[in-house]
Specification:
The protein has five helices and three strands. It is mainly α and about 110 residues long. The chain has a domain of about 70 residues. The chain has a three-stranded antiparallel sheet with strand order 1-3-2. A hairpin with a 2-residue loop joins strand 2 and strand 3. Helix 1 crosses helix 2. The longest helix is centred in the middle third of the chain and has 18 residues. The radius of gyration is 26 Å and the shape is elongated.
Length: about 110
């Protein structure tokens, strides 16, 4: 059976919801990236659009940052911050769980 290939060109811009699906980020994170200028965006009438080129550039920057630190994920500056926060936290015991009182005679009085 022959396979059909779509001849539709790739979109030049996508909606923020599509961008968050492509990047596997939350919608608020995508809007934050647009606010800081990391994702190029524009208005088309009442609809906001993000350029696909800026999405690809964002991913490339994230990959370059991960390679520069020698470890995947967070940049070294953020990892150091987390390690310092963990070290500064005092180790305390968990609070005692509250139990329901079973000796409540007023509940059983008629």
């Amino acid at each position: 059976m022959p396979t059909t290939t779509s001849t539709q060109p790739a979109p030049l811009a996508v909606a923020p919801l599509q961008a968050c699906h492509q990047l596997s980020l939350s919608l608020s994170k995508v809007y934050g990236l647009m606010r800081t200028g990391e994702l190029e965006n524009f208005w088309c009438g009442r609809a906001r659009r993000i350029t696909v080129r800026s999405i690809k550039k964002y991913v490339a920057r994230q990959l370059a940052a991960a390679k520069g630190t020698g470890a995947p994920g967070r940049p070294a500056s953020l990892r150091r911050g987390l390690e310092q926060q963990r070290a500064a936290r005092p180790k305390t015991a968990a609070p005692a769980k509250r139990r329901a009182r079973t000796n409540q005679p007023e509940l059983f009085a008629e």
